[in-house]
Specification:
Helix content: 25-40%
Radius of gyration: 21 Å
Oligomer: single chain
Shape: globular
Order of helices and strands: HHHEHEHEHEEEHHEHEHEEHHEEHH
Number of strands: 12
Structural class: alpha/beta
Length: about 350
C-alpha cells in the first residue's frame, strides 16, 4: 500500500499532540531583543540594524518558492551584510519542523514564513513573539493580527486558469454558477488541499446554497483532483485539464508570460490567502531576523511584484488592486478545519475523478 503523503491538515492536527509547546518559557522580561522588537521608538531601525550586523546571520524557515528565494535574499545580504541561512520546504513541512523542534526544546529557527493559517497556529502554540514595526501602517487592512505575532507579507490569489487551445474566450464563465453548463463536463480540475478556497466560495453563496452548488457541479460535470499547484498549472498548459479552478495567480501569469497556451480569469469572489512571517520567541538572532522582517515588508515588495506575487504593501502598485478579493480568515480556517475538511473530502475529493 502506498503511504499517504503528509498534508497541511496533518501538520495542523499535530498541534494536539504537542501540548508541552505551550509551556515554553517566554523571553526573559526586559531582555533587549524583546523590548527592541516591540519598540516604536524613532531610533528602532538604527538600533536593529546595528544589532543585526553584530549577529551577522539568522535562520529563515520559509515556504517561499525556491526559484524566487535568491531574488529577495541576495539584495538583502548585499545591502546589509547579514547572511541568511535558508531552509525551504512546503508549508506543511515548515510547520511540522517548527513544531517538532519546539517540542524538543531545539531553537534553530529565527524567522518563519509560510501561509497565514499556519502562522496563526504557531501563535496559538506560543512559538512566536510580538513585533511592532513602523511599516505596519503601509500594509493592507487585516494584514496585522491584534496580537502582532505574525504579519502578512503577500497575497496568493486562486484564479481560474484555462488552456487557450481548448477553451475560447467567448465560452468563459462569468460566474461560478456558469460552470454548471454541460460544456464544462470533463474539463474542470482542482488541487487536492484547497479547502480554504472551497470554504470561502461556498460561504460567499450562503453556506447551504454554496454546498449544494458544489454537489451539483461534481455530479453534473465532474472535477479532476490533482496534488500540487505546479502540477495543476502544468496540466492546464498541456490541455489535460482544460480549466483549472484553483491555480495560483503567479503560476498562471508566469506560464502565460513564457508563451504557454494559458490565460486566466478571476471569478467573483476572487479568493486570496496571505503568507505571513513571524519571529521565533526563542530566536538566537532576533535583530537580524527583525531587519529582514522589515525589509520583506518594504524593499522586497516591488521585487515580489516582479515575480507576479500580489504585494501587501499599499505603496506598491498592484495590477490586481481593483479586483474584488475575499481574504481567507486564518482564525476561522483553524477553528473550522475539521468541518470544512470533511465537507471538501465528501463533496469534492471522494466523488471526483482524476
Amino acid at each position: 500500500m502506498t503511504k499517504r503523503p503528509f498534508t497541511r491538515r496533518d501538520a495542523l492536527k499535530t498541534l494536539a499532540a504537542v501540548p508541552a509547546i505551550g509551556a515554553l518559557p517566554a523571553i526573559a522580561q526586559g531582555a533587549p531583543e524583546a523590548s527592541l522588537l516591540a519598540s516604536g521608538g524613532p531610533d528602532r531601525a538604527e538600533k536593529i540594524a546595528a544589532a543585526a550586523k553584530k549577529e551577522g546571520t539568522f535562520t529563515w524557515y520559509t515556504s517561499f518558492a525556491e526559484k524566487d528565494v535568491p531574488a529577495v535574499v541576495d539584495p538583502f545580504e548585499k545591502k546589509y551584510g547579514v547572511k541568511v541561512r535558508v531552509w525551504r520546504a512546503s508549508t506543511e513541512k515548515v510547520l511540522q519542523r517548527t513544531l517538532t523542534e519546539a517540542a524538543g526544546r531545539r531553537f534553530d529557527v529565527d524567522l518563519i514564513h509560510m501561509s497565514s493559517p499556519e502562522m496563526e497556529a504557531l501563535h496559538r502554540e506560543k512559538i512566536l513573539q510580538p513585533v511592532n514595526s513602523p511599516h505596519f501602517k503601509q500594509l493592507l487592512q487585516g494584514a496585522v493580527p491584534s496580537h502582532r505575532e505574525w504579519v502578512a507579507t503577500l497575497l496568493t490569489i486562486w484564479v481560474q486558469a484555462y488552456n487557450t487551445n481548448a477553451i475560447k474566450k467567448e465560452d468563459l464563465p462569468k460566474s461560478y454558477r456558469d460552470l454548471l453548463d454541460p460544456k464544462y463536463k470533463g474539463k474542470l480540475g482542482i488541487e487536492v488541499e484547497d479547502q480554504e478556497w472551497f470554504q470561502t466560495v461556498a460561504l460567499s453563496m450562503g453556506e447551504q446554497q454554496g454546498l449544494q452548488f458544489f454537489r451539483d457541479l461534481v455530479a453534473s460535470n465532474g472535477i479532476s483532483v490533482r496534488k500540487g499547484h505546479s502540477l495543476l498549472t502544468n496540466l492546464v498548459v498541456s490541455g489535460e485539464v482544460p480549466f483549472g479552478l484553483t491555480v495560483y495567480n503567479y503560476m498562471a501569469e508566469g506560464a502565460r508570460k513564457k508563451g504557454a497556451p494559458v490565460d486566466w480569469i478571476a471569478l467573483d469572489p476572487a479568493v486570496a490567502r496571505s503568507n505571513g512571517q513571524g519571529i521565533a520567541r526563542r530566536a538566537a538572532h532576533p535583530h537580524a531576523a527583525a531587519l529582514f522582517y522589515d525589509y520583506f515588508l518594504t524593499e522586497a515588495q516591488p521585487l515580489m511584484l516582479g515575480m507576479d506575487y500580489v504585494p501587501i504593501n499599499t505603496s506598491v502598485p498592484s495590477p490586481l488592486a481593483t479586483m474584488p478579493i475575499k481574504l481567507v480568515d486564518a482564525t476561522r480556517t483553524l477553528d473550522d478545519m475539521d468541518k470544512w475538511g470533511k465537507l471538501y473530502q465528501e463533496i469534492i475529493i471522494k466523488r471526483s475523478g482524476t
